[in-house]
Write a structure and sequence with these properties.
Blueprint (H helix, E strand, L loop, with lengths): L1 E9 L3 H9 L4 H4 L3 E13 L2 E11 L4 E11 L5 E9 L2 E13 L2 E12 L2 H9 L1 H19 L32
């Protein structure tokens, strides 16, 4: 069993970071160990809240696995959040939660992850490097944000502009289709 909590203040709007984390189809473009992503069952629960199921293929030098998760994206409240729960895969337990709260210089990002592999050997191997793995994951998202968005300056407000309302592409690929 491994749990980890990360907090960072980043110079981007909460909506920008929420959009980045919530766009799971794009993960293979910037998270090096995610080699493919398949998305299905995408639907809107209510305004500002959507869910989808996603299957990621991950590859490391010694390991290649697939796992499926349910991703819930919620921008309906004062704090945007993305929550992920396990559907299937090599884990006994997997959940993570990203929150994005306004901060005077951008966004307070909080990331929590809790997981346990079914295989004790895999669990022990990953736990030995878990802090480093989480730091690398967060660095992937920070680098992607830097590539996509100009950083906010101290003079700009941290809140998202009114024009920044559509967080995800209007049309999703058909169920079972390959990621864009």
């Amino acid at each position: 069993m491994a749990q980890h909590h990360v907090e960072r203040v980043l110079p981007y709007t909460p909506m920008q970071l929420y959009t980045l984390v919530g766009d799971v189809r794009r993960y293979p473009e910037f998270v090096p160990w995610i080699t493919s992503m398949r998305v299905w069952n995408e639907h809107v629960e209510r305004e500002g809240v959507s869910t989808l199921d996603a299957e990621a293929t991950v590859g490391f030098s010694f390991l290649r696995e697939k796992f499926a998760t349910r991703v819930r994206r919620d921008s309906s409240g004062e704090v945007e959040k993305v929550e992920v729960s396990l559907l299937a895969g090599p884990f006994r337990r997997l959940s993570n939660r990203w929150t994005f709260a306004p901060h005077p210089v951008g966004t307070l990002l909080k990331f929590d992850i809790d997981f346990e592999f079914r295989s004790k050997m895999l669990d022990m191997m990953l736990q030995a490097n878990f802090d480093r793995a989480v730091a690398k994951l967060i660095a992937c998202f920070e680098s992607r944000a830097m590539a996509l968005y100009p950083p906010l300056t101290a003079a700009r407000p941290a809140a998202a502009p009114a024009s920044e309302t559509s967080a995800f592409p209007a049309s999703a690929p058909a169920a079972g289709s390959a990621p864009a």
